[in-house]
Protein 1
Amino acid sequence: MADLKNYYTLVEEIIQELGVDPVTCRGEEEGQWNLQKGSVPVWIDVFYDENNSTSYVQVMAPITELPPTNREAFFEEVLEIGHDLFGVAFTKYENWLYLKSIRETEGLDKSEMRATMNRIGTYSEDYEAHFKKYFGGKAPEEIV
């Protein structure tokens, strides 16, 4: 298994630079952090995948619950917006739309990690409001 401590330190340094205590952001498992950007939670995970024998960093945020109707227009909007995103992508899991970035930890530096966290935070805040306005649904803070 890979030693991920350097990546944990990297994430915590960036969280500290954002003016937040990284200790209070730590998740239930080692290598997990939970931040808040406006009304949207941003989740960071650094983990080792035994199936691939590779370690990864994932940054993701819930955007909105999928609408019960008008789904074709909703997903068309997702695809249209996705064309203009940099370094992140929309993903659907169960009944929610998320923004997500995942990559191998190898070669990851502080600048790239900071940029990824900023992208997810900024895009998620923008698009959470956009989808709520046009399609309704639960907002991320309403996740049970």
Note: DSSP finds four helices and five strands in the chain.
Protein 2
Amino acid sequence: MMSIRTKLSLWLTALVVLGTIVGMLLFESMLRQAFHDSIINRLEEDLEHVIMATHFHDGQISIDESQLSIFYKPAYSGRYFQLNLPHDIIRSRSLWDQTLDIDLLGKGENRVWQAKGPKNHDMQLLSVGLSSNASHQTATLTVAQDLSIGRRVFSEIYGTKLLVNLGMLAAMIAGIFLVLRQSFKPLRKMTLSLSQLRDGDITKLELNELPPEIVPLARTHNELLDYTANQIKRSRNNLGNLSHGLKTPLAVMQQQVEVLGLKDPQLAEAMQQQLDQICKMIERKLTAARITGSMLPAARMTLPEDLEGLTNTLSKVYQQKQVHCHLDLDTQVNRLPIHREDGMELLGNLLDNAYKWACSQVLISVRQTTEGVKVSILDDGPGVADHELSLLTERGIRLDESVMGHGLGLSIVKEICEQYDIRLLFCRSDKLGGLSIHLEFAQ
């Protein structure tokens, strides 16, 4: 989908270009009309001057050119007049050897038109019909002006105006992009803030530097973060309260088992094993609640801090086995692209499985690849047969009933991997001989 910034840029640029084109067309039309009107006004003035210089004497008509402008004297000067009599033609010296093709008009008639003149140039002509009451003689007086000079001036003015408008258009388009860039700068800052929030660097969006249009969105996002944090805290407290609440009934059952041991030692031993499993599960859940206690609702897993927290916790849970965990982390990777709580659940289950089956050693490797981040968890336990690897993530299925568990941990791992599109692989470890688990996070 096209971004808002691109859409605004295109629409505003199109409007500015369209406005410039319409403005230029209107300017060209107005300038052309003004040019035409100025020519007609000048021809009307010239016509009045020529009429004033026209004399009727003894039935003869003559024009005193000494009363006229000097523009009528140079040959092909661009300013012309011609008087058409019934049997004679009087023309300006500027026409030289050229004669205008004029239609005779009656007294008081006027005509405005364009035609070709000397040097085949376009001319604007104005004619009027004249007559003498004394001699009853009629004539047609015509004044003309060459349009080539005016059109050259018109082209210069219009061309200059066109260049100025094109420069202004380019400046306005550049201004549109600059203004939109500056206007969307707070959104880029908000995007950066969201990335920092996702990574856990900040806890809330800062509202002071945001424009008023975005503040309600950011405030709502902060309220949602507070609500989510409260929900996580409430769930953690409920889990802790439940685990603590179970301790008292378990203590009572422990006493009853001790009493039962005096009567039926075998039954007491079986019940004691189940009580120990329940106590370990409660302790594990309390530890998980403590680990996730300070998590931000939108934080990502940080390396190596979160992994060290998990390994330290599991080392205490399985302290009787003396499992040594080695971290081999790529310095380029300091975060995993997964929600921190989900990441702790994912890696916590996998590491718990590794600690559970390991004899003495667990290896955690994190590498940056061209396709993303690869996390490997290896142990030196008995491993899993090749034909049973596909059963590991089936909910409720346990391949060895002799070890504590409900067979749900790896199925939860599978669900989280599907949610984040993480590739999950199980195989035998060539390095340690046990199970090798590989997680491939896409970029």
Note: The CA atoms of residues 165 and 323 lie 79 Å apart.
Protein 3
Amino acid sequence: MEVDLYINNLTEKFTPQANPEKAVQMSRYMKNLFDYYGIQATLRRELSRSFIKEEGIPVKSELFETLKKLWALPKREYQYFGMELAAKFKRKPEVSDIKMFEWIILHKSWWDTVDFIAANLVGNYFQIYGQQSQKIMEDWLDSGNIWLQRTSLIFQLKYKASTNTALLSRQIDALRHSKEFFIKKAIGWALREYAKTNPDWVRQFVSQTELSTLSKREALKRLN
């Protein structure tokens, strides 16, 4: 299906469910950075499932174009649909997909999309193309962009015993003096999640590493 028609049909699915009162609340929760239809997550996912059942998903060659057009739309629900649509293709990612993921991280950036992209798309990508992770992570660290940096810290959230602790240590060491809330929080989150798998490693790392109060508190939240 032609991309514009596909998105127009999605609009016809979303528009009748708009809730102006909820839209104001949702926008306020996101610091008024985005407009919303006011469709809450459970209903939005039901609508998305129904839409995909009716319309299908784009062919892979049209995915990036579809995401760019979804990201150009003002209502935040389109970006949520887009990131979840991209996850439909994650079983067989292409090497070039990392550029697509980087693009959606860098546009309309906020934690609500970046965290999903990091843990579900980037994380899955590097489980398949792990040999590329070190160079890309170095580039993202050097970028100065807090959302690429946050992604480099949390993309292993679902790795459990497969976590590359040497890489995680390097990422944290490079960013642990950051004053950015989202970086300090991400450091603690990454450590807290890995503590579910290897609490002794996390305790030792925290004891031997100078971290911000926020990062340390988050890291040890379930261990103390």
Note: The chain has a mean pLDDT of 96.
Protein 4
Amino acid sequence: MVRILKVVGGVMCMATSVSAGGVERSTQSMDILFQDGRYIELGAQFARPRISGDAPGPTGNIAPNIFQGSFGYKADLTDRLSYAIIADQPIGARVKYPVRPVLLSGSTAKIDSFALTGVLRYDLGNGVSVHGGLRSVWTKGEVFLPFAADYDMQTKRDQAWGYLVGAAYEMPEIAARVAVTYNSKVEHEFDHTVNGADVGTFDMTIPESVQLEFQTGIAEDTLLMGSVRWVRWTEFNISPVGQPDLVSFSKNSVTYNLGVGRRFTPNWAGSVMLGYDTGNGRTTGNLQPVSTRRSLGLGASYTQDNVTISAGVTYARLGGARTRVVNGDFSGNSLIGGGIRIGYNF
């Protein structure tokens, strides 16, 4: 029962993460560490944001669709020691202002990342375990601003390291688990060009975070689950030569998720999850003009033998924001996201 329900919850968190604070694309969940035996999973995620406003004049939708994937593998080394390898995309952004009679017309921005994480978990006994590992992140970005004399900035892909540490407590008799994980910041140093000319380097920090994940049985075949995630987005700043504070955030964010999952048959389970993200303040940069996020997610899971197929959909309302530089006003925006995950225990 527990394996079916927690995978459903994980898929809905995955679908919601593309509307979390800052430019986050992955919640970096450690759920895979608690799978039984050897386990492998593949995931795919889609989001269709609708973000528009006045900047000044109607912008049209500035947020293209988002596609991304994930991979995870977990295995036991001994009765007490296990490990996991996780591939995901921790941050990302896609912004494209349509050609319209507004100052930002034709402006585009993109951030791509890929992370590979290795984690060890050690069972101390009596339900207590600790985990920790290293993360390698590859990131690159580009910005084109026609209104700023056709400013065209592109970075080379940079690799940087981070680490994570955490602990968990479990009570298997009631399907309860609480896990907390600290993820360190990852500091990049980008070589970049402006309008084709090398102009040196600038630094960017993927911020540190703390995540609390929990679940507990509340009735037969019924599981309460959720998470709280804090991210220090005030550490994130993109300031290439000649364009200070191209992207920055004035406030840190906290994301809350709370849901209920239930098994209906030996093979089928479903769940519902509510989410709220505090955002990064009412005033933002022009490349991420949203504030708070409120979401509702629905999930379903089918298990046959050692295979579990899970899918989830999320609808999010994106709070309005005013932007710096051009004093744009964005409101009434939303996002529809979905994800699918295939897991195999062997």
Note: The radius of gyration is 21 Å.
